[in-house]
Amino acid sequence: MSRFTQVCLGLMVLALAALFMWPDRSPGPQQAEPVADRADPAGPQAASKSATRTIERPPSQAKAPPSEPTPQDARVAREQLRASILAQQARRANEPAPARPDRAEPVEAAAPTGELRNRIGGHEDLLAQLNTDFMPLAGECIDAARERDPDLGGMLTVNVEIMSDEELGSIVETVEFGDQDGINDEELRTCIRETTLSMILPEAPTGQEQFMLTLPLE
């Protein structure tokens, strides 16, 4: 083998050695995607169902704000109590009925929005209930009547009959107005009547009783 050939073979061996020993410059493996960006293994249909379960609310879980009592609610409660009292009285039909008073017992009001004065004694619970529930509303009825007629005056007489049961309570059975007071404002009378009939009164001895309210309109 000639000298030239030997030199060429040596250069080729060095070139091959350099090629195999050269560092690998190829790009490394790609960075893994964040878990949050990966697609749901269960597929889009499962994801849709999950979202639906999140937003759906059964109607029974919705909490409505408490409603304020209305006059209709008071009237319904009164009628229910009246039916209960009548049923209780029917069960006591064999017992002697209490004596019914011959005349109404007056309870006088010092002012339309003031407190009632009891001129006969007793009935403290009834008087307290009337002062708390009846008088403020009666005052509103009278104020509205004064706006319609600034010259309105006199004394409005209200005859009230209550039906009571010593266990269940009392309700207003009838409301009538005295003819001698000279007050002819029918809207005022209707307002007072509806206010009185809507009341539920404290327990009293079983039976019926009458009393009279006098309301000054001055």
Q: How are the secondary structure elements laid out?
A:
Layout: H1 3-21, H2 44-55, H3 71-91, E1 105-109, E2 116-118, H4 124-148, E3 155-165, E4 169-177, H5 186-197, E5 200-201, E6 207-216
Parallel strand pairs: 1-6
Antiparallel strand pairs: 1-2, 3-4, 3-6, 4-5
Helix pairs in contact: 4-5
Question: How would you describe this structure in keywords?
Answer:
218 residues, alpha+beta, six-stranded mixed β-sheet, 5 helices, rod-shaped
Radius of gyration: 46 Å
Number of helices: 5
Beta strands, count = 6
Biggest sheet architecture: 6 strands, mixed
Residues in β-strands, percent = 15-25%
Average of the residue pLDDT scores = 69
Q: Secondary-structure element order, as H and E?
A: HHHEEHEEHEE
Alpha-beta classification: alpha+beta
Low-confidence stretches: 46-63, 100-104, 108-113
Distance between the termini: 147 Å
Q: In which range does the helix fraction lie? A: 40-55%
Give the strand order, joined by hyphens, for the main sheet: 2-1-6-3-4-5
Overall, the morphology is rod-shaped
What does this structure look like?
The chain is an alpha+beta fold and 218 residues long. It has a domain of 114 residues. The chain is built from five helices and six strands, in the order H-H-H-E-E-H-E-E-H-E-E. It has a six-stranded mixed beta sheet with strand order 2-1-6-3-4-5, with helices on both faces. A hairpin with a 6-residue loop joins strand 1 and strand 2. Helix 4 runs antiparallel to helix 5. The radius of gyration is 46 Å and the shape is rod-shaped. It starts with a helix and ends with a strand. About 13% of the residues have low confidence.
